[in-house]
Write a structure and sequence with these properties.
The protein is mainly β. The chain has one domain: Beta Barrel (Lipocalin). The chain contains one helix and twelve strands; from the N terminus they run E-E-E-E-E-E-E-E-E-H-E-E-E. It starts with 16 loop residues before the first strand and ends with a strand. Protoporphyrin IX containing FE binds next to strand 1, strand 2, strand 4, strand 6 and strand 10. InterPro entries: Calycin, THAP4-like_heme-bd. It comes from Lutibacter agarilyticus. It holds the Pfam family THAP4_heme-bd.
Length: about 190
């Protein structure tokens, strides 16, 4: 009889599935100001099993894909993929994020009891160009013209509802710009 191995996804278990939301607001830079884009999106989180690093660190892994469409024309204007990982021993959560602007990052945070309260999961995770643990990698063009300096993601999940709020600090068009995205999503059955 083959053995069934149960993966312990810990906090990541709450993310598994297909999420949809249509109340998104994106604030993005323009050369002569700011654009505001109402959007809808689908985020799919799939189980990726677990793996071992250096024969000692065990990571439970989810792969995700996030597709964001502008309400004004139904066109895809943000496409993101990566992994969420959880180290049960250290209770560390990590999010690797890649966008096809040639920007990638690894955000991370150590969790504690305050992240799980009354069935609600709250994650506050960040990365920065000066952060030695949780960094950002970007192309030479982006470094020069549209630098991502810091990234922060606040995520809450409770009873099949997710609130996702992201702040990406940019240096673009000769100024600092707070690029923000926020949406509420529902787990599809
Ligand atoms: C829901 C999520 C997001 C949406 C809808 C979104 C949308 C946009 C839009 C509309 C622009 C303006 C340029 C354009 O029209 O293409 C932009 C610029 C930019 N975004 Fe995002 N974004 C999102 C998340 C992110 C994230 C997570 C990062 C990086 C960590 C990021 C990095 C950038 C950068 C570097 C630019 C400047 C490039 C430029 O305007 O030339 N964005 N984004």
């Amino acid at each position: 009889m083959s053995e069934i191995i149960e993966i312990n996804y810990g906090p990541l278990a709450a993310l598994i599935g297909v999420w949809k939301g249509d109340k998104g607001i994106d604030i993005a830079p323009e050369s002569d100001g700011t654009e505001e884009n109402p959007y809808y999106e689908t985020i799919t989180f799939e189980e990726g099993g677990d793996l071992t690093n250096g024969e000692e660190q065990v990571l439970a892994v989810l792969h995700y894909r996030k597709i964001v469409k502008r309400k004004s024309d139904d066109g895809i204007f943000h496409d993101e993929t990566g992994y969420w990982m959880w180290d049960a021993k250290e209770n560390v959560i990590m999010h690797s994020l890649n966008i096809p602007r040639a920007v990638s990052l690894l955000a991370g945070a150590k969790l504690n009891d305050s992240n799980y309260k009354n069935g609600k999961l709250s994650i506050d995770i960040s990365a920065g160009i000066d952060n030695e643990d949780w960094g950002i990698v970007q192309s030479p063009f982006m470094k020069q013209k549209a630098l991502t300096k810091n990234y922060r993601q606040e995520l809450t999940v409770e009873n099949g509802k997710m609130i996702c709020s992201e702040t990406t600090m940019l240096e673009i068009y000769g100024r600092a710009f707070e690029h923000t995205d926020k949406n509420e999503l529902t787990l599809q059955s």
